[in-house]
Design goal:
mainly alpha, 70% helix
Amino acid sequence: MDMAFYMRDPRLWEYFISLPSPVRAALLRHEVYVSSLGELQTMAEHFRHELEL
C-alpha cells in the first residue's frame, strides 16, 4: 500500500499519520494491505513491537 491508500479513508489516514514515522515507514515498506481500522491498528502494534517503540 502507498500513502494514497490510507488517505482515501479519513479514519485510516487519521490513525496512520498519528503513528511514529518508523512504524509508518514499515507499513509502507512491507506493503501491508488492510481493510479496516482494526487491521491497521493490529499491524501497527506488530511493527511497534518489532521496532521496539
